[in-house]
Amino acid sequence: MYSEKVMDHFTNPRNMGELENPSGVGTVGNAKCGDIMRIYLDIDENHVIQDCKFKTFGCGAAVATSSMATELVKGKTIEEALTVTNKAVMEALDGLPPVKVHCSLLAEEAIHAALWDYAKKN
Amino acid sequence: MYSEKVMDHFTNPRNMGELENPSGVGTVGNAKCGDIMRIYLDIDENHVIQDCKFKTFGCGAAVATSSMATELVKGKTIEEALTVTNKAVMEALDGLPPVKVHCSLLAEEAIHAALWDYAKKN
Ligand code: FES
């Protein structure tokens, strides 16, 4: 049912946790399942994402997509990070079953919310 | 949204993992969200559950209810364990939001499946 990459990022998630003094924080909820996701971004003066962490109450698919999404946006500029869609994250994970696509949206929405939080502060 | 006990059992789950040579294993899936749950039971010759572990791909509510459910069935006889309903588990956790009630069913169903697996083998 789940690809090897999904199981790898679920059982060994990258960038799970919090950042102290983040440049931006985004928290989003998923009405479909009631789950929540929070993303912390550390952005330097050149608008490059230096670090990125996530916390979630969501399922394994939410954990795996967030883990992959944080890997994909790290080192990218804000403009580049905005182009990392949940479709790109799912492709990097070799796909997700249709019932789990909504879980992959949590990471994308939380990253956008964190970038928006940063933009408002700067 | 979530009680302190839910957050405690989510962030510090009890009995997460696998058992080698379990007396019974139950694996169930949730059609609503596509999540899976597996429970391992170690049952002695007096039909007492000596140990119990769980693995899940489910959300925080699934993790918290499984953690609490494994605590509740440990040390119980098979007959007693069958009376541990998901309602009892939710009460022990000080409740769950309505959208998450279906997640709490995973643990109950997996424990029943593991007891059934044990019964078939013995
Ligand atoms: S079911 Fe809620 S995030 Fe996957």
Automatic annotation (TrEMBL), chains A, B:
All residue ranges annotated as the NIF system FeS cluster assembly NifU N-terminal domain in the record: 1-122
GO BP of this protein: iron-sulfur cluster assembly
GO molecular function term, any single one: iron ion binding
Name of the molecule in the record: Fe-S cluster assembly scaffold protein NifU
Provenance organism: Parablautia muri
